[in-house]
TrEMBL record:
Pfam families associated with the record: PIG-L
InterPro entries referenced in this protein's UniProt entry, alphabetically: Bacillithiol_biosynth_BshB1 (IPR023842), GlcNAc_PI_deacetylase-related (IPR003737), LmbE-like_dom_sf (IPR024078)
Membrane-crossing segments per the record: none
Gene name in the database record: bshB1
Signal sequence coordinates: none
Lineage of origin: Bacteria, Pseudomonadati, Planctomycetota, Planctomycetia, Pirellulales
GO MF term list: deacetylase activity; hydrolase activity, acting on carbon-nitrogen (but not peptide) bonds, in linear amides
Protein name per Swiss-Prot or TrEMBL: Bacillithiol biosynthesis deacetylase BshB1
């Protein structure tokens, strides 16, 4: 998988539905928030997609072509089933009826069982809008008598990953043990050299050091080496208590 789908939802060739779709305001947010879980679930045979809403550019050391190559590289490291870019405006993301319809159309074509959105409290306006947009699009994707492509479809759940620009101490609703895939997550993040390496202070703690500390903190809460936190507005359903440790 090396291609990034940029031609809009209508041109998606429908295959098997995705197990889950991570929707990210910018390329790198999915990796930062839940790269370890993505890698882990793909390793267990799940079909996982990432839809970036914008190019994430301009940034001080990036460009659209650099960021696209980095995104492709990160997608390969995670072995993603599908990756696309919705082409909405970076820094100026807005919840319009048009953008809601666009995202709902992606849901109808990709048919993810679950959708992952950024955690709803954030300082970055693009992130806050992205979450509102995803929640509304999830509702819209089940509408009938519409000109949206694909059949009506309703993702069963929306969950929230943490890629936030506030220093919050949030109690997560659950934590995934990512001890086995943490290094893969770090590699996928380092693929975004223009964002996390070039021009960044090299004095510790670097951005990468802080990510490791965060993952160790959440791992510590579940007595594992590394963990990734998640939130849910609706209660989490378990088919068996055997999965709880
Ligand atoms: Zn972002």
């Amino acid at each position: 998988m090396t291609t990034i789908h940029t031609d809009g939802p209508e041109s998606i060739v429908q295959t098997e539905p995705l197990d889950f779709l991570v929707v990210a305001p910018h390329p790198d947010d999915a990796e930062l928030g839940m790269g370890g879980t993505i890698a882990k679930m793909i390793g267990q045979g799940m079909r996982v997609g990432v839809l970036d809403l914008t190019t994430g550019e301009p940034t001080p050391h990036g460009s659209e072509s650099i960021r696209r190559a980095e995104t492709r590289r990160a997608s390969e490291i995670l072995n993603l089933t599908w990756r696309g870019n919705a082409g909405l405006p970076n820094r100026e993301l807005q919840h319009t009826l048009e953008s809601r319809k666009l995202i709902a159309s992606y849901f109808r074509m990709l048919r993810p069982r679950w959708v992952f959105a950024p955690y709803f409290h954030d300082a970055h306006p693009d992130h806050v809008v992205a979450t509102e947009l995803i929640e509304a699009a999830r509702f819209w994707s089940k509408l009938s008598k519409t000109d949206m492509p694909g059949d009506r479809f309703h993702p069963e759940r929306t969950f929230y990953y943490f890629c936030i620009h506030l220093r919050l101490s949030v109690r997560p609703d659950w934590i995934v043990d990512i001890s086995d895939t943490f290094e893969q997550k770090m590699q996928s993040i380092q693929a975004y050299e223009s964002q996390f390496v070039t021009g960044r202070p090299s004095e510790p703690p670097t951005m990468l050091d802080r990510l490791r500390t965060d993952a160790a903190h959440y791992g510590n809460l579940i007595a594992r080496r590394y963990g990734e936190p998640f939130a849910t507005k609706e209660p989490l359903a378990l088919s068996s208590l055997r999965d709880v440790f």
